[in-house]
Amino acid sequence: MLTLLHPKTVQVRVRGVTNTRNETLHGRLKTELAAIVDTLPEPTTRLNADNNRALWESWRSGLTVKPTRSTELPPLRLLLVMDNLVGHKNSAWLVWCFQQGILPLYTPVAGSWLNMAESVQRILNGWFWRLHKAPGGEALK
């Protein structure tokens, strides 16, 4: 299950996936994130290259995992909190994010519980299995 949560509006986007390979998840993420970025208002202030880079860097301050950024950065549009998995640090994925103005930030190792979308995903999974019944009519546990 791919889960995106907007913490301010508490809007949840959920998509089922048939596998968790990077190409599957990244493809779905790209579709969802592009749709989200398209709905965001255009930045009202255009920063020069140095100030834009400083803004990107201000969000990376103090992080232990800092993927290498593109040299040319568009305006920062979206912060994306993800689990600290190797597949989430794939260079092609990161380049795509940076080109869209998306900055991935990673939870600490063994800290996926800090990712609010993970918590929502656990709740949704629990509801799903409680609402669906086994073929004999028994509730699945």
Brief overview:
The chain is α+β, with helices and mostly antiparallel strands. It has four helices and four strands; from the N terminus they run E-E-H-H-E-H-E-H.
Describe it:
The chain is of the alpha+beta class and about 140 residues long. The protein has one domain: Nucleotidyltransferase, domain 5 (2-Layer Sandwich). The protein has a two-stranded antiparallel sheet. It has a two-stranded parallel ribbon with strand order 3-4. The longest helix is centred in the N-terminal third of the chain and has 18 residues.
- Shape designation: globular
What is the C-level CATH assignment?
A: Alpha Beta
Question: Helical proportion?
Answer: 25-40%
| Number of helical regions | 4
Uncertain segments of ≥5 residues (pLDDT<50)? none
- As a percent range, the share of strand residues is 5-15%
Terminal CA distance reads 19 Å
Total strand count, please? Answer: 4
**What is the makeup of the main sheet?**
2 strands, antiparallel
Total separate domains: 1
Strand order within the widest beta sheet: 1-2
- Report the radius of gyration as a whole number of Å: 18 Å
- In CATH, the topology is named Nucleotidyltransferase, domain 5
Could you give the topology of this structure?
Blueprint: E1 2-6, E2 11-15, H1 22-39, H2 49-60, E3 78-82, H3 91-100, E4 102-106, H4 116-131
Parallel strand pairs: 3-4
Antiparallel strand pairs: 1-2
Helix pairs in contact: 1-3
List keywords for this structure.
single chain; alpha+beta; Nucleotidyltransferase, domain 5; globular
